Amino acid sequence: MGILKSLKKETIKTKKHIEVKKLIVGDDFHTLHYLSAFGDQETRLVVLKKIEKESIVGKSFQRVRGAENIERCRQIFPNASIENEALRPTFYKENKFRHFGGRSKSEKLLLNEEFYTQDSVDFNLYEAFPFLNDSSFWERYAESFQQNQLKSIDFIADENKWSVEFFNGDLFKVENLVWGLPPWKFLKLVENKALFENNFIEYCESTKGSYCLTVKFQLSEPLSNQKETFFIPLSLTHDWGHFIGEFYKYNHYFLELVNYFDPDDVNEEGISKRIKLLKRSLEKIYPQFAGTIQKEFISVNENIPQFGFESKFCTKSMLPGLSFIGESAPLPEGEGTSHFLRGVLSCKQFAKDSVAGDIHN
Known about the structure:
Blueprint: H1 2-7, E1 16-25, H2 29-38, E2 43-47, H3 53-57, E3 64-65, H4 67-76, E4 90-93, E5 96-99, E6 120-121, H5 125-128, H6 135-144, E7 145-147, E8 150-156, E9 161-166, E10 170-179, H7 183-189, H8 198-206, E11 211-219, E12 230-233, E13 242-250, E14 252-261, H9 268-285, H10 289-292, E15 293-301, E16 322-324, H11 339-348
Parallel strand pairs: 1-2, 1-10, 2-7, 4-12, 10-16
Antiparallel strand pairs: 3-6, 4-5, 8-9, 9-10, 11-14, 11-15, 12-13, 13-14
Helix pairs in contact: 2-11, 7-8
């Protein structure tokens, strides 16, 4: 036993202290949006995974959904190309796709599925966010970001600064911490929760919930001319929810589907079962499906916005130098937008004396 212990390799990481004015932590479109608008030479960006341009500009799911979101989008981006006609989602039942709101009813909707039953529009991201086509921005992004895994967060009260430690040994001390991941992850990493008021803690905890399983197929040819979002039930006898899908083209033909699940109820074996059920349904609905698959991508994401989370709390209960951005961020009272538009507005609210739409310039 002693010999085995002596042979065990031990890695001792030396802490590297880094002081910067602003640290952005996140890994999605809104993280880049904020960086493009407010990043400077004193800003550092840490991501859990590298953000690829292709992953955020592909059409994928229509980004703006629901009447309030659509109207707000038209106000914020008056010069961007936004579809005039909204698309009505459908669900598969009795061998055909049917629109929500008719006489036929879908299987029981679970978790975050209700949001996708609303009409949706897509709009030109490049027109709304010119930084996506700006080579100098992507160069700045490449220079400012590092990929790392978070270990802990602390507030240094006598200095009014944040301490953010990573597993590679890096220890950042920053004046401004801009948090682009779900608030529940922030709260989890702060050991001294006595720093916060109860309503802040309740808000953070409310942003944790279901996980999202994404199954994406690259196809050799289009399977359908469907443009709307569609629901395919996992089961007709159990309340297992749906796979929610869309076809789109971005250099190649794609079919992307998502399924929301409770991580406490579904394990790895359960995920594999869901994917098998999905493929069986797709082969039934689209007989040529199996023969068109070129590539298959599977991922599970815990950093998703929860439909209907508790977003109303007094921002004064947040400590100095802390800001939340993204689709689970708090917004001023009366602002009812959600998901993608909420993420956009979470960045816009930091622009002083801005007018609608100017944050992206």
